[in-house]
């Protein structure tokens, strides 16, 4: 399941000889801990740096007893972030507050925008060449925030900044599998757009599976708002953590494989993209072929049914608003 290929291309020479370093920022949290566990089990990871403002020494000590080759280090507090990020090939960011029942992801903006901006500033300083995987919500805004900070420091490379939307794809496969009584691991749904409510567009017409219109509408709604099911069930204790950790580990592993030279690895992800630019949207998720540089070929939307075109039209203004909120936050802060 995991990449074992040696890193021969795409990294600075020190990284080639020492293998991949992955840093997790927010490693003490609900997502951070199981994500770090899954990364510790990945043989492509040789160094795993765990950073948080609390708790990381304990998580690192615990994980370090697992007999896999990744060397785990724990870093706590602002003064140790440099050491955590330095020389990282990939920085995965699940830092920030999660939702409580009744909240939208955009409600998290006020708290998480500043957290993500500060992590971006640290990335500029300590690891400007790292590939950055942003999990912190609202992804539609935190990704542009991160990019704007890189831009104002002259180190933005659109091939290296990713919003992690893998959980939407994971959920889509699961929910379609349940409806069709088939193996979810064999079901691939192209989920495009953004990562919140109506901006999540599952293109069920591209699956090759036959659905009734009723099934399409119910599945679309469930994929768009699937996160709410977990928020509600956790009843104030947060949002998806375990499924997100799996999705985050899957995306990190896909990128590690691509950075190591493996071809044909495709994951949907929220990137700086031309796909919806004609409609004024600069960041958009579609299938992306990952490469030794990070973002390789960005796949187009493909053909949309009439119903999906309506969904697309509803998503565009919301995405523009979310992206603009991120851009103007950085301009003012
Ligand atoms: P959590 O509250 O359990 O953990 C967050 C961690 O971030 C805490 O350990 C906290 O100390 C840390 N943190 C806060 N400020 C920090 C800073 N400045 N630097 C480093 N670490 C910092 O939250 P959870 O459940 O792990 O969720 C994290 C984020 O991921 C939330 O914003 C949530 O909405 C988002 N999320 C994203 C998903 C996606 O599909 N992209 C899915 C599920 C959650």
UniProtKB/TrEMBL annotation:
The Lactate/malate dehydrogenase N-terminal domain extends over: 21-163
This enzyme's EC code(s): 1.1.1.37
Which PROSITE patterns does the UniProt entry name for this protein?
MDH (PS00068)
Which InterPro entries does the protein's record reference?
Answer: L-lactate/malate_DH, Lactate/malate_DH_C, Lactate/malate_DH_N, Lactate_DH/Glyco_Ohase_4_C, Malate_DH_AS, Malate_DH_type1, NAD(P)-bd_dom_sf
**Active site location:** 195 (proton acceptor)
The main enzyme category here is oxidoreductase
Annotated positions binding substrate: 99, 105, 137, 171
Q: Name one GO biological process term.
A: tricarboxylic acid cycle
What GO molecular functions are on record for this protein?
Answer: L-malate dehydrogenase (NAD+) activity
Which residues does the annotation say bind NAD(+)?
26-32, 52, 112, 135-137, 244
**GO cellular-component term (any):** cytoplasm
Task: Report the residue ranges that make up the Lactate/malate dehydrogenase C-terminal domain in this protein.
Answer: 165-329
Keywords, alphabetical: NAD, Oxidoreductase, Tricarboxylic acid cycle
Q: Name one Pfam family in it.
A: Ldh_1_N
Q: Which reaction does it catalyse?
A: (S)-malate + NAD(+) = oxaloacetate + NADH + H(+)
Q: Which family does it belong to?
A: Belongs to the LDH/MDH superfamily. MDH type 1 family.
What is said about its interaction partners and assembly?
Answer: Homodimer.
Q: What name has this protein been given in UniProt?
A: Malate dehydrogenase
């Amino acid at each position: 399941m995991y990449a074992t290929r040696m890193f021969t291309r795409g990294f600075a020479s020190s990284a080639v000889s020492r293998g991949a370093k992955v840093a997790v920022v927010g490693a003490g949290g609900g997502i951070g801990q199981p994500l770090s566990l899954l990364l510790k089990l990945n043989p492509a990871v040789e160094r795993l740096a765990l950073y948080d403002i609390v708790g990381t020494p304990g998580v690192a000590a615990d994980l370090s007893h697992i007999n896999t080759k990744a060397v785990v280090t724990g870093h706590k507090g602002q003064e140790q972030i440099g050491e955590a990020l330095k020389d990282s090939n990939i920085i995965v960011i699940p830092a920030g507050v999660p939702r409580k029942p009744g909240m939208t992801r955009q409600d998290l903006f006020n708290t998480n925008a500043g957290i993500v901006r500060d992590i971006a500033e640290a990335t500029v300083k300590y690891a400007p060449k790292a590939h950055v995987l942003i999990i912190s919500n609202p992804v539609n805004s935190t990704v542009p925030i991160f990019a704007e900070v890189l831009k104002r420091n002259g180190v933005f490379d659109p091939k290296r900044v990713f919003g992690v939307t893998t959980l939407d794809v994971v959920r889509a496969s699961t929910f379609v599998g349940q409806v069709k009584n088939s193996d979810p691991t064999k079901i691939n749904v192209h989920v495009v757009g953004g990562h919140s409510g109506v901006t999540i567009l599952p293109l069920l017409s591209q699956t090759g599976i036959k659905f009734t219109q009723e099934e399409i509408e119910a599945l679309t709604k469930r994929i768009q708002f699937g996160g709410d099911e977990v928020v509600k069930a956790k009843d104030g204790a947060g949002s998806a953590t375990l499924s997100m950790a799996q999705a985050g580990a899957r995306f990190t592993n896909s990128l590690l494989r691509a950075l190591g030279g493996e071809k044909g690895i495709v994951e949907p992800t929220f990137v700086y993209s031309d796909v919806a630019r004609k409609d004024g949207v600069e960041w958009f998720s579609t299938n992306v072929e990952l490469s030794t540089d990070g973002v390789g070929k960005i796949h187009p939307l493909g053909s949309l049914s009439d119903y999906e075109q309506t969904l697309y039209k509803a998503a565009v203004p919301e995405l523009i608003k979310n992206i603009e909120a991120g851009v103007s936050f950085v301009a003012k802060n």
